[in-house]
Amino acid sequence: MVDRPTTRRALLARGAAAFATLGLAGCENVTDIPLAKRILGGVGGLNRRVQEAILGQEQLAQEYELGDVSTSFYANGSTDPDDKHYKAMAAKGFDSYKLVVDGLVEHPYELTLAELRAMPARTQITRHDCVEGWSCIGQWTGTPLQGVLDRAGVKPTARYVVFHCFDTMDDGDPSGPTPFYGSIDLLAARHPQTILAYDKGGKPLEVKYGAPLRLRVERQLGYKMTKYIRRIQLMEDFKDIGQGKGGYWEDSGYQWYAGI
Ligand SMILES: Nc1nc2c(c(=O)[nH]1)N[C@H]1C(S)=C(S)[C@@H](COP(=O)(O)O)O[C@H]1N2
Ligand SMILES: [Mo]
């Protein structure tokens, strides 16, 4: 039997050959270009089945050393939410921030940042791969999402974790700016490297990186890692949110499943 890393590398090499390195936006220590773009263009379903068969969704993403951390880390998408409530909170160090956990749970609840910081913490140095073709390595600290979900008691009918964010995207929609949101399934949510991160490089997240709380879901592409999380909603499906595809970027054409 072929060992898994070898198989994965072979798989990656084939994809990587097809894509040249794009402008790397200040990130150093860029290793190979991920298979980002293979996920696009309608092969998501097949890609997912192939990947799961070969790798298993439970596989850990590679973790790096402190010396591998990129000296500058590119910030992408929203970098400074316009929302008045958000701005007021940010001006006071997010003292009044409360994360809402609700939807298909036994006990909906709210968590302050201090309460999140008092929960079990995990620090991980991982590579962020954006679908646009850049990668940066960063150190993240946060609490595993699994613990936050367990405390709420996820109902058996729940299948997805939906993240509602403070930022909106001004994409010319006549009805006004579109709220940013994203979603993952419970398998990804319970992965040991899936954390609600509040620190980057050992310091509270800067606004541009998603303060006060952002998702890290290390086996997926950057667009799944929602920043500026205000509410976590457990749902049976996400068809009634936004355009119904499970996220702002998914509504704009990206695949819902963005495994790497
Ligand atoms: N709320 C929110 N989360 C978001 C985005 C966004 O625009 N808004 N952009 C996504 C994309 S495309 C990427 S690559 C990463 C960028 O994270 P970074 O700014 O920490 O590099 O955030 C993701 N999460
Ligand atoms: Mo991205």
TrEMBL record:
It comes from the Bacteria. SUPFAM superfamilies: Oxidoreductase molybdopterin-binding domain. Residues 94-237 form the Oxidoreductase molybdopterin-binding domain. This is Molybdopterin-dependent oxidoreductase.
